[in-house]
Amino acid sequence: MLRAGKILIVLCAMVLLCPGRWAAAADTLKIGSFLAVTGPASFLGDPELKTLQMYIDKINAQGGIDGIKIDFVHYDTKAKAKEAKNFVNRLIKKDRVDVIIGGSTSGNTIAVMDLVERGRVPLISLAGSVKIVEPVRKWIFKTPHTDRMAAEKIFQDIKSRGITKVALITGNGGFDKSGRAQCLALAPKYGIEIVADEKYGNSDTDMTTQVAKIRATDAQAIINFGFGKAPAIVTKNIRQLGIKLPLYQSHGVASKKYIELAGEAAEGVRLPAAGLIVADLLPDSDPQKRVLLRYKHDYESKFGPVSTFGGHAYDALFMVVNAVRSCGCTDRAKIRDGIENTSGFVGTGGIFNMSPTDHLGLGLDSFRMVEIKNGNWTLVK
Q1: What is the CA radius of gyration of the chain?
Q2: Domain 148-273, CATH number (from 3.40.50.970, 3.30.70.120, 3.40.50.2300, 1.20.1050.40)
Q3: Backbone torsions φ then ψ of 100, nearest 5 degrees
Q4: Rounded to whole angstroms, how far apart are CA atoms 170 and 152?
Q5: Residue 49 CA: distances (Å) to CA of 2, 73, 178, 233
Q6: What is the Cα–Cα distance from 14 to 204, expressed in whole angstroms?
Q7: How far apart are CA 368 and CA 378, in angstroms?
Q8: Average pLDDT, integer, range 306-315
Q9: Which of the residues 146, 336, 352, 381 could staple to 345 if both were Cys, CB 3.0 to 4.6 A apart?
Q10: How many helices (H) and strands (E) does the chain have?
Q11: Predicted local confidence at residue 374, as pLDDT
């Protein structure tokens, strides 16, 4: 009896001295997500959720992250900010998750950032607005390229074509508004004059009035910053009014769904996008190509055509996996530190190098300028 007691004391001491190792064997990592799986932004949330579920199932089937299984909790926000707040509050207080991945839209993410900071739970957003990571908040990260990066990439291409006068048309969502602000702020840097600044509601079904106003200007190109069905409608309206100016879209439409909705009107449209949609066209020497083709194969073998939006979820999940593997634990603060120390991570969005002053970790060179030709993506040389 005395010997058994001594053994118990020794075991307890070992657990106290090496809590990470002993806890890891029994721990479960609880990941929460709030994504717009249905509703107007379902083209974002649907592939994001499918990606998370597919790889979490795969990780668990292989024994977890060095033995730590993943418990996944998901809520569908339908792209509504109020729902996003309610669900994130539930994830933190009731579900007591260790990390959160989401939301799908900038508006949903921005709506919950204060909750996340107070709850001290690491969150990796799948939305585009630069406001998510600037200024840097301790517990908040993101994987998609920012709207500022998109505006810069577009203006670089416009300048290379000798264009100096541009018309801007944007939606009324959080991503759209932030993108508009970035375009207006950056245009002077590239010697570009914004000669029209039109707006529409993201639920509008016809934008010919705004497009007609653009036609009456001396614009040499058009930039549409938005996501969902609206950019496809704008594209059709532009062509229906006989406007043949170069048309640029943002990375908010980097999926086959946009091409399907816009149809022939999408021919010649240019936009900045992650390398995923042109993975097959990248040289074998590109360090991303292997990762991109593997994810593309995994996703398309189960669900059909891949999109960059699902890729953002892939990047977020495996950043978390790497952070957990690094600390050998499920401690929120240590996972947060691991995400912030992400270095040389080859994801679908680029090669990520985060730091205490950069919670995105991507450079402008991670963006590819693509053009739609014959109903498919091509690389702009």
Answers
A1: 23
A2: 3.40.50.2300
A3: -125, 135
A4: 16
A5: 54, 11, 25, 26
A6: 64
A7: 10
A8: 95
A9: 352
A10: 13, 14
A11: 95
State residue 107's pLDDT score: 92
Contacts of 162 (CB under 8 A, 6+ apart): none
Look at residue 173 in the predicted model and tell me its pLDDT: 87
Name the residue ranges covered by the structural domains of the chain.
27-145+289-363, 148-273
What is the domain class of 27-145+289-363 according to CATH? Answer: alpha beta
Q: Are 338 and 323 in contact (CB under 8 A)?
A: yes
Tokens of 32: 């929460």
Amino acid at 88: V
Average pLDDT over residues 32-47: 95
The conformation of residue 136, written as its DSSP 8-state character, comes to: -
**What are the strands, taking DSSP E only, across the chain?**
28-35, 69-76, 99-102, 123-125, 140-142, 165-170, 193-199, 221-225, 247-249, 270-273, 343-346, 351-353, 368-373, 376-379
- Please give the Cα distance from 167 to 180 (Å, whole number): 11
Joined tokens for residue 287: 């360090």
Token pair in block for residue 265 = 């009107």
Cα 18 from chain centroid? 37
The amino acid occupying position 330 is T
Question: What does pLDDT average to over the chain?
Answer: 93
Phi, psi of 314 (to 5 degrees): -55, -50
Spatial CA neighbour of 123 closest among 33, 222, 44: 33
Q: What is the Cα–Cα distance from 32 to 36, expressed in whole angstroms? A: 14
* Tens-place pLDDT, residues 277-287: 999 999 999 99
Q: Which two tokens stand for residue 35?
A: 């994504």
For the full predicted model, state whether its pTM sits above 0.85: yes
